[in-house]
Amino acid sequence: MKHLLLALLITVYGCAGTKTKKEKPQALSLPAQPKLAFTVTEGILHPESVIYDSEDRSIIVTNLASGNPLEKKTISYLSKVGLDGKVQKSKWVTGLKAPKGMAILEDHLYVSDVDRVVKIDRKKGRILKTIPVKDAKFLNDLVADADGNLYLSDMFANVIYRIEDDKLSVWKSGPELNSPNGLYTDGKEHLICASWGSDIDSKTFIAKVPGTIVSYPFKDSKTATVENTSGHFDGIAADKRGHLWVSDWISGDIYEVTKSGKATKRFNFSQGTADLTVVKDQGLLLIPQMNQNKVIAIQLD
Question: How far is it, in rounded angstroms, from Cα 268 to Cα 33?
Fold first, then answer.
């Protein structure tokens, strides 16, 4: 399994380059303690997810205004923040329930919103339409592949949906998904899922069987799991070297996973460390702190 994971991850992150046998592994140039670039608190209320819009060089934040991840009232909103950490518009898009994961496709921003997906004009900040998910229990993350298809996780239903031309279908389902949460794709070959775990306590959200990180190829049934790693995983993103960064919502731990599949805990923050992202050209790791009403930016290089 370890060799399979290695082969898959090399394929997934091949764009980051390969090494010859004579080269030594690239050292991780991180300080002993995280180097804080900036913190955003203005207008931030229970942030769950962040995404980087490279076109206008801004950071978009989903805010669960009530703090309830299953909120059905349309009281939540999206904020827009600059790369300097300054808020450009605290309530950029309103009328959302409990927005979580986001994906950008051309001029549109798609947002997972409890029991629907919201399609937004990313230039005007205006909701264009909603895509209802009939049997939704707890929609979570969204990611887009290179062909313009979206993948959407439903953590409580053990389902990953595929959305093509705004039409929904089930891509994978079953208890083996282990409460799928964070999603990442290289675009063409694989979808990587960070799961929360099974048998979840309804009050504490703690799973009796913690989640894992699994790579699902688009074209066959072979999967690979990151070994010796488990947790209540939430966000997952890749840096410019092709290393994954994964957050554990319950413990506040953040892991780095190399292309060989080795996972190392790098940082620890408070409970509520949610759906992170990486701004590759800036070397910034953006982390929503859901319980502390802030987004922090860590300088990776």
Answer: 10
CA distance to 15, 96, 100, 128, 165, per residue, from 124 (Å): 33, 16, 20, 10, 21
| pLDDT tens per residue across span 261-278 | 899 999 999 999 999 999
Tell me the CATH number of domain 44-239, given options 3.40.190.10, 3.90.226.10, 3.40.50.300, 2.120.10.30: 2.120.10.30
- Measure CA of the first residue to CA of the last residue in the chain; give whole Å: 32
Residue 5 host element (H or E): helix 2-12
Its pTM stands at 0.89
Q: Where are the domains of the chain?
A: 44-239
Q: 8: which DSSP letter?
A: H
- C-beta of residue 2 within 8 angstroms of C-beta of residue 228: no
Helix (H, G, I), strand (E, B) or coil at 11: helix
Report the greatest alpha carbon distance in the chain: 58
